[in-house]
Amino acid sequence: MNGAAVKVGMECMATTRLERVLGGERIWPPPIWLMRQAGRYLPEYRAVRAQAGSFLDLCLDPERAAEVSLQPVERFGFDAAIVFADILLVAGALGQQLRFDEGQGPVLTPALDGLGLDGLDRGRARDFLSPVGETVALVRERLDPGVGLIGFCGGAWTVATYMAAGGVSGDHMAARSWAYRDPDGFQELIDRIVDVSVGYLVGQLRAGADAVKIFDSWAGVLPDGQFARWVIEPTRRMVENVRAAVPGAKVIGFARGAGLRHLGYAMQAGLDALAIDEAVPLDFAAGTLQPRLPIQGNLDPAALLAGGPRLEVAAREIATALGARPFVFNLGHGIHKDTPPEHVARLVDVVRGVADPIGRGSG
Ligand code: CP3
Question: Is 119 within the bounds of a domain?
Fold first, then answer.
């Protein structure tokens, strides 16, 4: 079956190859899409980005954001599109001033560390984020019905690290120390991020996203107790509240750097699928994680940047190790901006050409 979408009210029967895997089915070849598949490594993205003005303007311009969301699917034939936006829009929605400076990345003012939340202007979240729902609807309208569409937000912890530091910080000390010094105050920030993120994800699902992904890129810096409180618990609440609003909503979690804690994260948060970074050993992923839920990952973006025969070996190794159970091929983290697009095209061919590790096709 090649997957014409059959939408029944808000419920969606699993029709795209991506949704089938997220629902627990193994198919071969595995669906493939890549984190940050829309971005600066594509000349057609750079052209639209130049017209849009700033990166933030692009994120909040549904027509152009839809165009760049579709570009990588059109060029490479991926099995899923991801809506073009950014996890830090939630910080803007919460009232922090957000801009992206060329070469420096996101800048959020005022930094919240020690200032508490008083400076934040509440109550403008829905309006601020509504263009992203429009982008989702435009992409869904233009996307082949057999291709999945993924919405997303950041994990509350990861968004908080940027909000506390006022931008990019190497060690995340602003959030890490705030969480020890004033756990109640920090909890309030986390709660606000969770609330806005739930509304944001629900809006994307209602606009036509087939699944949503929670990117907790800095989960790995926390010790156990902090990880349970600031990563697992807020994620569990997001998942629970999203499913209460959209029954059957599919949620992928990504707790980069969580290592051995991936199992507790996935089970306690109630995820449908787990995205793993490149440092997760394949035997742990296949033997411990994958018997419990579908896995997405985990090619090293550096292998994709390098290209050549070692890229092919690495891609085949992952597809073979994880291909016996429900699996979505992806990177362990976002595409590096200097990656030649030909390497991406080659990767898609290689993954689709890998011999079925259990010797029968079903997709
Ligand atoms: O194609 C896709 O994956 C969809 C779009 C997407 C972007 N950011 C676009 C983007 C997604 C899913 C994200 C997630 C995101 N944003 C994360 C989580 C995943 C990860 O990479 O760990 C994080 C931590 C951010 C925050 C962020 N956005 C930073 C730190 C930066 C600056 C660093 C950089 O790469 O420039 C961004 C900017 C950003 N987000 C760009 C893109 C395409 C580059 C901006 C540009 O085009 O000039």
Answer: yes
Q: Flag whether 154 is in a domain.
A: yes
pLDDT tier for residue 2 given thresholds of 50, 70 and 90: very low
User: Considering Cα of 20, then 3, then 154, then 43, what sign does the dihedral take?
Assistant: positive
Q: How many CB atoms lie within 10 A of CB 190?
A: 23
Per-residue pLDDT tens over the stretch 311-327:
999 999 999 999 999 99
3-state SS, residue 23: coil
Only one residue has tokens 């994709």, namely 304
CATH code of residue 86: 3.20.20.210
- 65 with 84: CB under 8 angstroms? yes
Name the residue of 34, 56, 86 to mutate for ligand 1: max ligand atoms within 8 A of Cβ.
Answer: 86
H helices of 208-261, in order, are 224-227, 233-245
Q: Is 49 in the pocket of ligand 1 (CB under 6 A)?
A: yes
Asked, for residue 9, whether it belongs to a domain, the answer is no
- Looking from the CA of 30 toward its CB, the CA atoms found within 13 Å total 34
Structure tokens that stand for 177 in this block: 């120390």
36 is catalytic: yes
Q: Please count the structural domains in the chain.
A: 1
For residue 172, give both structure tokens: 């995340």
| pTM over cut 0.70 | yes
Domain that residue 180 falls in:
17-353
DSSP 8-state symbol, 30? P
189 in any annotated domain: yes
Please tell me the distance from the alpha carbon of residue 17 to that of residue 37, in angstroms, as a whole number.
Answer: 18
Residue 247: partners with Cβ closer than 8 Å, 6 or more residues away: 10, 11
Of residues 291 and 110, more confidence is placed in 291
Please state whether 257 falls in left (phi above 0), alpha (psi between -120 and 50) or beta. left
Residue nearest to atom 42 of ligand 1 (CA): 39
Cβ contact 336:304 at 8 Å: yes
